[in-house]
Amino acid sequence: MKKLIVLLLAGSLLLFSPNQLLAQVQKIDSALTALYQSGRFNGVVLYAENGKPLLSKTYGVADFQTGKTLNISSPFNLASLTKQFICAGILILYDRGLLQLDDPARKHLPTLPYHEVTIRQLMTHTSGLPEYFDLFNNNRGNADTLNNELLLVMLAQYQPPMQFAAGSSWSYCNTNYVLLASIIEKVSGQRMEEFFKKEIIRPLGLKNTYIFRLPDTVNNPNQVNGFQEENGQRRLNDLTFWDGVVGDGNLFSSAEDLLKWEQQLYKSKIIKPATLAMAFQPVALKIPGRDSSYPYGFGWGIDKPGEQYSHTGGWTGFVNIIMRDVKKNRTLILLSSGSNPAAMITARNWFNGNPVAVKPTRIITNVKVVDGTGTPARNAAVRLEGDKILAVGELQPFPGELVVDGGGKILAPGFIDTHSHLEGSLQPKPQALAALNQGITTIVAGQDGYGSWMDSLEATIKRTAPAINLATYTGHTGLREKVMGENNLHRTATQDELNKMKVLLAAELKKGSLGLSTGLEYEGAWFSSYNEVVELAKVTSFNQGRYISHLRSEDLQLRDAIEEIISIGKEARISVQISHLKIALKNDWKTAPSILARLERARQQGINITADVYPYEFWRSTLKVLFPKTDYTNEASAEFAVTQSLDPAASVLVAFKPRPEYRGKTLSEVAALRKETPARTLMALIAEAEAFRKANPDSGGVEGIMGKSMTDADVSAFLSWQHTNICSDGADGGHPRGYGSFTRVLAEYVREKKIMLLETAINKMTALSAEHVGIRQRGLIAAGYYADLVLLDPDTVQDHATIQNPQALSDGVLKVWVNGELVYANKEFMGKFPGRLIKR
Ligand SMILES: [Zn+2]
Predict the structure, then answer these.
(1) Which of 178, 424, 518, 637 maximizes the CB count within 10 A of its CB?
(2) Residue 684 burial (CB < 10 Å; 0-12/13-18/19+)?
(3) Per-residue pLDDT reduced to its tens digit, 437-473
(4) pTM for this predicted structure
(5) Are 443 and 418 in contact (CB under 8 A)?
(6) Which residues are within 5 Å of ligand 1 (an ion), measured at CB?
(7) Cα of 613 to ligand 1 centre, how many Å?
(8) Ligand 1 centroid, distance to 804 Cα (angstroms)
C-alpha cells in the first residue's frame, strides 16, 4: 500500500508520461480542429511546458479577404492581454524610482478630478473610476476618434461619478489602464510606442509586438484582421473610433512573442524579482472592520495564488486568453479573430484539466426565416449549437453536420404566451401539448393576481421538467392571501400588512419573478385600494420588474379601470400591460378606437402601456364575474348582466358541479329547463354553486361559463394595435383558446381576414411579447438567442379547438424546438422535456 502512494506521488510530479502528454495535446488539438471546421474558431494556439512548445498550431486565415493563412508569428490585437504589459511598464518606472505605486494618479496627471485614486488602484481595478465608453458616446460631439489626451479632458470636464470609494471594491474598468498608459508617457517623457520598443520589445527580442492606435499606422504584412460573421459572411470588424486610446488594449503581438514574453517574466530580465512578485498578489480591499481581497494582481487574474494566473481579452473582432501555471511551468496562449468565445472556453477547460467537449452543431436549411422583428421573411439557414442559435444566414452545412430540411416552410421564433393558465396542468401533463400544438415554447404564468412562489416553482420544475419554458409574475391576490388570510380579503390592506406584502414581493422579484400581476376584478383583490396596488407597483419598479393586470373592470367601468392602470404606470414609473384587452359590454361595442386613442395619449406622456389579446369573441370565467358590484342577489344587476355583459343564447355553461347535466348548455337553455328568465337562472346558479362550495370545500372550480360578449370589430382593432401582443389566457381544455389562440390568429386574422402580415403577427407572438414581459434572449431568431423555434406552414395552419372539442390539435405547426431540442413534430410529442424556469 505504501508503495502505491509513493508511486502516485511520483507520478504527479511529472505532469504526463510522454504517451499521456501526446493524448492530452491531441485532445485540445482535435477540439480546436472541430471548432475550426464548424466555423467557430479562427486563430492560433501555443501550449508549452518549461518554455518548450508542445503544441503550436494555426487554424485558418490572417486575412479573410485575401485568404492569407495564419502563422505562429501573426500579430493579433491582444485586447485586454495588453494590460499585463502596461503594468510591466509601470513596474519598470517604479524600479527606477520614477514613481511610487501608492502615488495618487493625480500627481502625474494633474487634471484628473479624482483626488484619492492611486496608481496601484488603477493597476488592480480597485479605483472605483467609471468606464469611459458612455462618457465618450454621450459627449463626443464632433470628435471622431477617442485618444488618451481627449479622455483626460473629458474626465476633467464631465467628472462622471465614481462607482465606489477608491480601494473599497473591485470592478473591471478600462479607464484605469488608459490612465496608466498616460502616466507612463508622462513619467518617461516618451510616447508609448517608443517607450515600449526601448524597454520591453527590444530587450526581450520580440519580433511582432507593437502598439497600434489610430490614426497612426503600422505596416505589418502579417497583421490579423478582426472580423465578425453576419448572414453567413465574414465582415471586417477591426479598429473602431475607440482605438485612438492605448492602455486597455491595442497592443498587437503574436503567440510566438507572447511565449517569449511570458517566459522572460520568470527570469526577471526587465523587472526586479521582488517587484515582479507584487504583480501576482491578490489585491487587498479597504473595507473597514474586515480583511478582504480580490484575486486580481497587476494585469493578471489570480486563479490559484502562487500557482496559476490567467487573463482573457475580448475586443471588436478578437477573443484571446493566456494562462500560466508557474508551479509546473506550463503556458497556454490562444489568440483568435472573430467573436465566438467557444475556443477560448474550450482551451481554458482543457488547461484546468476539465472535460473538453465540443458541442455538435445542427443546421436547419431550406426555410423562410421570419425572425421575430417584423421584417420580411428571407431565405436563410439557421445553425444551432447546444441550446442556442449560433448563426443565421446563407449558411452551408459542414461535412458531417446534422441537417434538418425545412421544406421551404416558415421558421419563426417559438411563441411566447404572455398570459397563460397552463402552469397548473404541467405536473400531470409536462408535455404541454396545449402550448406545443400552437407553437408556444414559453408561457408566462402568475396571472390575474395568482401565482406560485419562485422557490416552489423552481423545485417543481426541477422535479418534473416540462417540455416548454415557464416564467412567472408574482400575484397580488396571492400576497394578500398570505398576509391577510384567505378569508379576510374583503377590505384594503392595513399599512402593516402592506409592508409585509412589500417584503414578500421584493424577495420574489430578486428571485427572478417578472413583476407584479393583479386581478382587480376578482373578489380577492376587488376591495384593495389604489394606494395598496400603487405601493406594490413601486416596489416592483424599484426592482426593475413590470406590472400586468386583469383590470378592475372589463365592462361597466372599463374606462375607469384603464385610467387606474395608466395612473399606476405614471406614479410608480413602471411599464404596465393590460391583460386580455377586451370590451365586454354590449353598449360599448365598437369603441375600441377611442380606447386605443386613450392608450396612445398615455404613451405620448411617457407611460409604457401595452396590452395582450386573445382572438375570440367569448371569454371563460366564473358566473360571479358578471356582477361587478358583487351583488349576486340583485335582480336588476342580473338583468343587466344577461342583456349587456353576455348573450345568454350564445354563452355556454362549461362547468357546473352541483348539476353536471347543465354542462354544455347555454344559459338560455338552462333557463328554459328551469322555466325561469335567464337573469333569475344566473342568480340561482350562483347561489347553488356557493352552497356546493361550502359543502365541498375541496371541490376546486365549481362553475364556469364561456361568455359571448365581444364583437369582432373590437377584437380585430385590439389585435392590430402596434403595442398589442398575442396571448391565450388558456388552460389545458375549457375555453378553446387554450389550444388554438396562436394558430387561430395565423389562420383567421392573417390568412383569411388579412388584418395583418404574417411577419407582424409573428412579431406579436415573439419579440414584442418578450419585450412586454421582460424576457431576454428569446423571441428572435438571432445568433446568441435561445433556440426556441417553430416551423410552420402558413397555407395550412389552422386551429381546431372548439367549445365542444377544446383539446383538438392545430394543423400546420410542423415542428417545435425548445432550447435546441425537437419536442414536437407532425402532431406528435417527441418525449423530450427541455423546458426551464426563465428568470427576469
Ligand atoms: Zn384574466
Answers:
(1) 518
(2) middle
(3) 999 999 999 999 999 999 999 999 999 999 999 999 9
(4) 0.81
(5) no
(6) 448, 550
(7) 11
(8) 22
